[in-house]
Amino acid sequence: MATQPAPGWYDDGSGKQRWWDGTHWTDQYIDLRERDTELRTDAGPAASGPAQPGWYDDQRGRTRWWDGRRWTGEVRYSGQEQDFAGVVIDGRWIHLGDLSQPVSEVAASADSGDALLRRPEFTKAAVERRMFGPAAGPITPRTLSRAINRAAPHLVVAGSQLWVVPFPPARDAEARRFITWVNSSADHYRYR
Prior knowledge:
alpha+beta, four-stranded antiparallel β-sheet, elongated
C-alpha cells in the first residue's frame, strides 16, 4: 500500500511552499522569495493530485525521495551525521532504516546477546512488538532467539522502540564512541 508524504510545507513545483495536508495540496502557501513572508491562500495552479517526484523533508530530520506514489529508501542527511552498524544520528533524530526516533527520547548501550536475553525488560519489548533489528524488521518472541546472537556484542538504542544491532567485537571502541555521542546528543536535546 502506498503512503503519502507527511503533512507539511513543500515546494509545489511553482517555487512556492504550499501546505500538503497528507493527501492533497491546499490553497495555503508562502513564497520565500518575497521580502515579507506571509501566509496566503488562493485557488492557484498547484496540482490537485499527489506530490510530484522529488526530495522532500520527511519530517524526521532528513530528506527522502518521493517517487510520485510512495517514499523510497533513498535518503539524504545533513552531512553532519554519525553512523555505526546501520544506525544513523543526525541532529535531533536517530534512524535505523526507515525507522526514526527523536534522539532526546533514547538511550544507547552495548551488551552481549546473552546478557540481553537474560533481561526480562529486554524480552518484554519483543512481546510488545517494539523491538527491531538491523534490517529494520520486527523482532517478535518467535524470532527473538534467531535475531539475537548470544555470543556477539549488540548496540541497543532504547526509546519508544528498541533497536538491537549486532557488531563485531573488534569494533567495540568505535561502538563506545558512538554510544557516547548518542547519549550526549540525547541529553543535549532533552534539556534544551
